Amino acid sequence: MVDSSWNHGGVAGQRREVATSADERARSSEARAAARAEAMTARLESRAAAREAQAQEREAARRSRREAAAALAERDPHRAAAERKRGSGRRDVVRQDRDVSGYATLVDGERIRTLAARGASVAGLAAVFGLGEDEIARVLAAAEEEA
């Protein structure tokens, strides 16, 4: 004999329970997906706000460094130039004109001719050697006569 007690309205009842259970699982899955999407949106917004705050902090730091460098340049331009970063990493001081008043310039006809051959002007040579332009012209003319 076959026990048919399990089949008394059981199949239809089981289908209803399965359908209800599937609906609950679908709703639960949709709720979890919505919660994940909401959490992701909140996370993205907080990261964007944090990045914006960091950018503002960096800009404020840059501005304060520029102001400090400008103040230092006003007080001590040589120190400011020594501390300024260069593209090659080189650090040096402000270029200064040397006091050459105590230096003696050797006035040599050969040097005058060599510099003139390299393209130095008569006025430039006269200024460098402390001679008159006519005297430089005379030295150069003497060199042409020898050649």
How many extended strands? 0
Major sheet attributes: none
Helix vs. strand class = mainly alpha
Q: How helical, in percent, are the residues?
A: over 70%
Overall spatial form: rod-shaped
Termini gap: 141 Å
**Low-confidence spans:** none
What's the Cα radius of gyration?
Answer: 45 Å
Average pLDDT over all residues? 81
H/E order of the elements? HHHHH
Tally of contiguous helical segments: 5
Percent of sequence in beta strands: under 5%
Descriptive account of the structure:
It is built from five helices and no strands. The protein is rod-shaped, with a radius of gyration of 45 Å. It starts with 9 loop residues before the first helix and ends with a helix.
How would you concisely characterize the structure shown here?
By secondary structure, the chain is an all-alpha fold.
Fill in the keyword field for this structure:
single chain, 147 residues, mainly alpha, rod-shaped
Write the layout of secondary structure elements.
Elements: H1 10-75, H2 77-83, H3 109-117, H4 122-129, H5 133-146
